[in-house]
Design goal:
Elements (H helix, E strand, L loop, with lengths): L2 H11 L3 E4 L5 H13 L3 E5 L2 H8 L8 E3 L7 H12 L6 H10 L1 H10 L5 E4 L5 H11 L10 E7 L10 E5 L9 H19 L4 E5 L10 H16 L4 E6 L1 H5 L1 H7 L11 E3 L3 H14 L3 E8 L5 E3 L6 H15 L3
Parallel strand pairs: 1-2, 1-4, 2-3, 4-11, 6-9, 7-8, 7-9
Antiparallel strand pairs: 5-6, 5-10
């Protein structure tokens, strides 16, 4: 069974409620129609009657719950809750109302905070910052979280590497230039995400342009230090570095460049040294390798909130909704 089919089956086994705040985008409704037809998750779509009608024409979303913030009976409760959360930061009740009614992502976060939804998918027409800022202000980080970061699930067709072509790439969407401690935290979170979603043991490689001391540079030193921290912090996972990408994935090259490594040649979780490398890397694999790319998925928020690439298709959104539903089963 293909990765996304396994995820959909998991989502169906214990259905959760995913909130979609981007009623101003046609792709939201195309994805919603497919999710509802396959009975993968319960959906709440936030929007006015006019927005929903204009963007869902010809699509069957009759099983979705449509919530208009301007008329919904619990809106005042959400406004009051938001004010209580943010009044220490200087927010007034009037500002709380203006924010929730003017930005559906804030409204969605309050719904999750108040227990009326299990997760959120947004970002098709909003920036990552506009997706994550409300999440961190309202839902906040999960207990014990050192860093909120992002990852992609990459499914590469006809690929013998990774877990039959399935990889987690981190961080490709959020943390610009992580220091060693942050890079180690990304490695640990990404390993846990791989295990949760793929159901197999993660094998984590921290990537560099160097393999085991083949090059000397401050950028290499950062990855070496991060690897040491990650091994100490997450002894339950197989983690190693620094490794070049080919040494991490290809058994023969791994054996040649890092013969003493238990990770080299077997990695299914690839940790990039910075956001430039991660973003470039996943897009090359997606476009040249014709891989399915699901994400950027967030890790470290108390409830699953997942970002979308603004270049995403409706099919991509379907995959992210299904993954969000599975994440919600364990949050």
């Amino acid at each position: 069974m293909a990765f996304i089919d396994e995820i959909k089956a998991k989502a169906k086994s214990n259905k959760k409620t995913v909130i979609l705040p981007e009623s101003m985008d046609r792709r939201t409704f195309e994805a919603a129609a497919e999710i509802l037809a396959e009975d993968i998750a319960n959906l709440i779509i936030i929007g006015t009657d006019e927005e929903v009608k204009a963007n869902s024409e010809g699509l069957d979303i009759s099983k979705a719950t449509i919530i208009n913030p301007h008329t919904y009976e619990k809106t005042q409760e959400y406004i009051n809750g938001f004010y209580e959360l943010r009044k220490a930061k200087g927010m007034t009740p009037e500002e709380a109302e203006k924010t929730l009614l003017g930005d559906y992502m804030y409204y969605a976060c309050m719904m999750v905070k108040m227990g009326d939804g299990d997760g959120i998918v947004s970002g098709a027409c909003h920036s990552t910052a506009n997706t994550l800022r409300p999440s961190l202000q309202i839902i906040k980080t999960a207990p014990g979280t050192k860093l909120v970061s992002a990852f992609f699930v990459m499914v590469v067709p006809n690929c013998e590497y990774g877990e039959d072509g399935v990889f987690v790439f981190g961080d490709c969407g959020l943390v610009q230039n992580p220091n060693p401690e942050e890079l180690a935290a990304i490695a640990g979170s990404s390993a846990a995400s791989f295990k949760q979603l793929v159901g197999k043991e993660p094998v984590v490689a921290l990537l560099s342009h160097s393999s085991m001391g083949s090059a000397k540079h401050d950028d290499v030193t950062k990855v070496v230090e991060a690897t040491k921290i990650a091994k100490e912090e997450y002894p339950q996972f197989a983690i190693d570095g620094e490794l070049q990408a080919d040494a991490a994935m290809v058994p023969s090259i791994g054996a040649s460049k890092a013969p003493d490594s238990k990770v080299a040649g077997k990695a299914n979780v690839l940790i990039f040294p910075d956001l430039d490398a991660g973003n470039i890397g996943y897009k090359l694999v997606q476009r040249l390798g014709k891989a399915e790319a699901y994400g950027p998925m967030c890790q470290g928020i108390a409830k699953p909130v997942n970002d979308l690439s603004r270049g995403c298709s409706a099919k991509d959104i379907v995959g992210v909704i299904a993954i969000t539903a599975v994440q919600a089963q364990n949050s």
